[in-house]
Amino acid sequence: MSALLSVTDAHVAYGKVEAVRSVSLEVGQNQIVTIVGANGAGKTTLLSAIMGILPLKGRVTFAGQDLARLDIEDRVAMGLGLVPEHRELFVTMNVEDNLELGAFRIERSRAKASMERVYTLFPRLKERRKQLAGTLSGGEQQMLAMGRALMGEPKLLMLDEPSLGLAPIIVADIFRIVTELRTAGVSVLLVEQNAQAALKIADQAYVMELGEFVLSGKASDIAANERVAASYLGFQHEGASVL
Amino acid sequence: MNTTIMLFLVQDGITNGAIYALLGLALVLVFAVTRVILIPQGEFVTYGALTYASLAAGQMPGTAKLALALGIGACAFDLFVARKALHGRLILRSVLTNIVLPSIVLALTIYFAAQKPPVAICIALSLVIVAMIGLYLYRIAFQPLAHTSVLVLLIASVGVHLALQGLGLLFFGAEGQRGPAVLSGAFTAGALRFTGQSITVYAITIAFIVGLWLFFGLTLYGKALRATAVNRLGARLAGIRTTLSGQIAFLLASVIGALSGIMIVPITTLYYDSGFLIGLKGFVAAIIGGLVSYPLTAVAALVVGIVEAFSSFYASNYKEVIVFMLLIPVLLLRSLAAPAVEEEKD
Description:
The complex is a heterodimer. Chain A is of the alpha/beta class. Chain A is built from 10 helices and 10 strands. In chain A, helix 3 packs parallel to helix 6. Chain B is globular, with a radius of gyration of 20 Å.
């Protein structure tokens, strides 16, 4: 069976500056794949381009279909979801409305069941369902952003720095939920600066530096490789990378 | 001044203010969703009013033909943009909404114009014609520019305004027209006399505001429109097309404009270019509301209406000047409160 998402020789440029150069990656069914690397390596740029927010040179196929001519909205309808770094919530609307809109392209009858699933995954959101999204804490906003993306019934969920700026206990919670998603049949492409945590839950990993993949392989191998850890991921021993 | 005159002026001001409120709300809506400052809103008013008046007088309004012409243009745009990935359903949908629909409306208009139709049919036809014009204008003039800056959109908006005004002169001539009252008759309460028309204005305005409130608060499409206004990228990531939101916004704005025109034209004689000034007063209200706040816009519109009524009583030559002067202190205060204005990125 071919990969769910496959990116071949992708280049992404801001004007004349190439932020991503000749990158290829694959995400299989029921897989967590992570892209780790320092700030500014081009990880967010790559995700945005896969989603169609930025123009991408190269070939991207999802569920066997070439994405070249499809808008963001069409990619969403196909089952590709992105939780962006800045979350992009509807801050003046309540939690429930945010979730309901996440299922804009889904049949009404299925959306109800979807919302129950999201509430089971994030009980905190259910408690706050009438609260405005803008008044939620950072962790709750991250959960809402993930919940909204899950409402669209994605086959692949792309998460951009879900742990950024969150307390360690909430980060642990979010990573636990990511592994639950894999069990539920949702593949995940996870972009993280918190490499240790990401490598712990991922199946496959890519290490990105200055717009290129410098290393790829099984996540456990990459985590175990001390030389790699020291030179690319910026940590010498357990715990040093947690900000 | 005695109380009777004052009450009378306030009543007059509220009637006009109600219409400015509707127009102001439409402007805020369109700006929030598409970032277009809708200068042609005034033309929707004129087109609605004069289409209605022409039909009621048994004349064929040129706007029905314009709708078909714009529809053909919109269809051409649709097909050209999708030329590399054309499929049957897309072609069929585009032809149906952009060509078949205005053709049917044109046929109905020709049929009814010949026989002085009843008021209800005149209103329905006028609303549909102007709504289609609004929808197709969005497709032709604004959708292709959707990603550009507010300034570019504003320039396009001015262009559309000028074009529509010129076409208005062509369709309706330089003479003014009046239409039949939607509701005739009147009653008095104390010193005040309420005409059927002014009651209609209040009732329709309130009904529309309540309707919009329900639409935005309860329906999925209403929420999607709000979502686009709050966070365009977020909306796209939820699968909500910016173009769909834009279409709904323009549809609502053109219907509101036409409805306002139909409500005004029995009270005041309207000319092909009268709409601009009326729309501009809705714009004053929208600016006072900061182009974001619906309640503030509605209240500001009533204030504009009342100020206008009083200034036309005391200094009728300066009535427009006084109304537009309202803007200066508001803009000053706003610029002091928020010195750094940054253009939305995306």
